[in-house]
Amino acid sequence: MPENTLSITDNRTGKVYTVPVENGTIRAMDLRQIKSGPDDFGLMTYDPAYMNTASCRSSITYIDGEKGILRYRGYPIEVLAERCTFLEVAYLLMFGELPTEKELKQWVYDITHHTMLHETTKKFMEGFRYSAHPMSMFVSTIAALSSVYPDAKLVRDPKHRMHQIIRLIGKVPSIAAMSYRHNVGFPYVYPDNDLSYTENFMNMLWKMVEPKYVAHPAIARALDILFILHADHEQNCSTSAMRSVGSSETDPYLAVASAASALAGTLHGGANEEVLKMLDEIGTKDHVPAYIKRVKEGKLKLMGFGHRIYKNYDPRAKIIRWSAEQVFEVTGRNSKLDIALELERIALEDEYFVKRKLYPNVDFYSGIMYQAMGFRPEMFTVLFAIPRTAGWLAQWEELMNDPEQKIARPRQVYTGSGEREFVPIDKRVPVPIPADYPTR
Ligand code: SDX
């Protein structure tokens, strides 16, 4: 029997099928030939939440969940966080290699000169309630940019794609900052092209009446490291949304808005905001055991813990914990860190978490650090979305260049009724309405 094949015996028919094994996978379409009879559609795989399904080939990010390894284009995240700037890493994700000095200079120049937003964005932003969640404003405004750049629909043209990629990476900090300034009722601050990507973001967030904003270098560097850590993470929920929506050949503004919508979920990028709410609810270290008890009773989840892929410590959480100490030297220690450290200490010793391989993930410490930097919890997921935009776009570019890819359209297992006779309205029997159905 040839190597790297799987022999499948269909006990319904006694037939044996041989399918090739490639990269540790078999092609789902190779199962279609397995039929119980001439009218059988053929075998499909059933994989809710895609627990064991590869949707694409990608060379961007590699994760080994058991070993807690994360690499962008083969470079360990620890090295990139220590040695690079965020825009340097965004270049690596996009083009596959670290940029030369000349390439980086041009890339930074291009991104920097796309940080301005069309003035109509202000009017759009004014339409939101003052208390609108920044993530809602972020998602909506990015989608609205689709109307500002009609050439973005030319998604099969590499030049047009790259132009939108540069625009989006340049503009997401501006949109994020505008969302924050709208929330707090401050006037919008225009970008300052003398500043670095993260310093300029801080400028648009926090500049008041001083003639020129000066970012604290330790805070700017810590934010840059956080951006590097959040830039990409293979086929997570929001990146899968980016690829699925992008596969319909919609424009990248609408695809990024869809990805950001997925990221906003509390089980995904929204978890960092939920961690702060959890720490506020716990209140003090001595309340931690009681909280852990409720988690073990299945009454609630320990936010910032657990991961679909990491069954070891999320390498990003380790770096964030180290980076947080650098921030606290400037801002003063966030007392919530003590509660988080106690939560981690107890959880890592407790059989409930050990058995389920639940460790702190990227969201567990990031919120504490963001809060110490002066960000409000409702801004935390926006801070995740800014750098992840570079990852979503790198994945989208890879998708658009992948000859195997086409519009995403999964199958289903149909569990509904067979064909039924139509029932005239006067013959219909009332359906019991669920107790929690909102009645008029
Ligand atoms: C991100 O995919 C990515 O790469 C995401 C991300 C990225 O960079 O894009 O890394 C960013 O989203 C990090 C995750 C942030 N989310 C949270 O911190 C929310 C809390 N975590 C969980 O909701 C959960 O761990 C998930 C959603 C992250 C992963 O869920 P899975 O893989 O579907 O695991 P599961 O829900 O099947 O859990 C397995 C078991 C279950 O217990 P049993 O039913 O077997 O008894 O572990 C339990 C779960 O109840 N469990 C938890 C838990 N996470 C899982 N129990 C308590 N607290 C938790 N946090």
Can I get a quick summary?
This protein is mostly helical.
Structural overview:
By secondary structure, the protein is mainly alpha-helical. Helix content is 48%, strand content 5%. The chain is built from 17 helices and 5 strands. The strands form 2 sheets. It has a 3-stranded antiparallel beta sheet. A two-stranded antiparallel sheet has the order 1-2. Helix 1 (77-83) runs antiparallel to helix 8 (217-229), helix 2 packs parallel to helix 17 (380-400) and helix 8 (217-229) runs antiparallel to helix 13 (315-331). The radius of gyration is 25 Å and the shape is globular. The model has no long low-confidence stretch (mean pLDDT 95). Bound molecules: s-citryldethia Coenzyme A. S-citryldethia Coenzyme A binds next to helix 16.
Mind sketching the topology for me?
Layout: E1 5-10, E2 15-20, E3 61-64, E4 69-72, E5 75-76, H1 77-83, H2 86-95, H3 101-112, H4 120-126, H5 134-148, H6 158-184, H7 197-206, H8 217-229, H9 237-246, H10 252-263, H11 271-282, H12 288-296, H13 315-331, H14 336-349, H15 351-355, H16 362-373, H17 380-400
Antiparallel strand pairs: 1-2, 3-4, 4-5
Helix pairs in contact: 1-8, 2-8, 2-17, 5-6, 5-10, 6-7, 6-17, 7-8, 8-13, 8-16, 8-17, 9-10, 9-17, 10-17, 11-16, 13-16
This protein binds s-citryldethia Coenzyme A (SDX).
Features of this protein?
440 residues; mainly alpha; Citrate Synthase, domain 1; Cytochrome p450-Terp, domain 2; 3-stranded antiparallel beta sheet; 48% helix; binds s-citryldethia Coenzyme A
